Amino acid sequence: MVLKRRGAALAAAAVLVLTPAVASCSDDGGSSGDRSTTTAPPGMTGQPPGGAVQPDDPAAARAEITKNWTAFFDPKTPTAEKTRLLENGEQMAPVLAAFAGDKNAAATTAEVKGIDFTSPDGANVTYDLLVGGNPALPDSKGTSVLQGDTWKVSVKTLCGLVELSGVAVPGC
Question: Is the pLDDT score of 81 beyond 80?
């Protein structure tokens, strides 16, 4: 049963890479949202001044992340709204359009299980990817980023799901 659900989740992820519209995505050399980490010089902690590792209002940020992730992975959410909820959404619009009408994607949702802030504008998100309401990829790991004034699903998370199919996608 677990393999069947995992297969359905992989099929849903594969939709992202098997559609011609996906091939039109390209990396324009701009920010892909890939957050690199650096090592602090000796004697430095590597944390921002004051040691802030969460937003000013973590409860509100958690609520927004949960709401936006749920909406992003909800098949009923229009593609234009999903574009707004994805980091660099305009650049990734062809990927979103590629799976907008697919029956596998229409059965795939996500349930946020936990949020751990890594900085005032970044968070690790633990979620279950559900297919037909059943966990297909339980305890999956993703990231959320604050872009503008909105907490968004990171490109890194979307590309991670795309990579599950084993196919490289330009722009990811």
Answer: yes
Are 126 and 141 a contacting pair, CB within 8 Å?
A: yes
Mention every residue, 6+ apart, whose C-beta is less than 8 A from residue 7: none
Q: Are 136 and 14 in contact, with CB atoms under 8 Å apart? A: no
Query: Which range, 43-47, 89-93, 160-164, 165-169, is most confident?
Result: 89-93
Amino acid at 48: P
How far does CA 102 lie from the centroid of its chain? 19
- Rounded Cα distance, 35 and 25, in Å: 20
Q: 98 is written with which tokens? A: 């590629």
Q: How is residue 48 annotated by DSSP?
A: P
Q: Distance of alpha carbon 163 from its chain centroid, rounded?
A: 12
Q: What is the pTM of this model?
A: 0.72
Could you give the CA distance from residue 71 to residue 84 in angstroms, rounded to a whole number? 11
Decide: 147 and 87 in contact? Cβ < 8 Å. yes
CA dist 12 and 103 (Å) reads 8
Tell me how far apart the terminal alpha carbons of the chain are, to the nearest angstrom: 31
Calculate ∠ Cα 28-14-95, nearest 5°.
Answer: 30
Q: Higher model confidence: residue 52 or residue 34?
A: 52
Q: Comparing C-alpha atoms, which of 14, 10, 157 is closest to residue 86?
A: 157
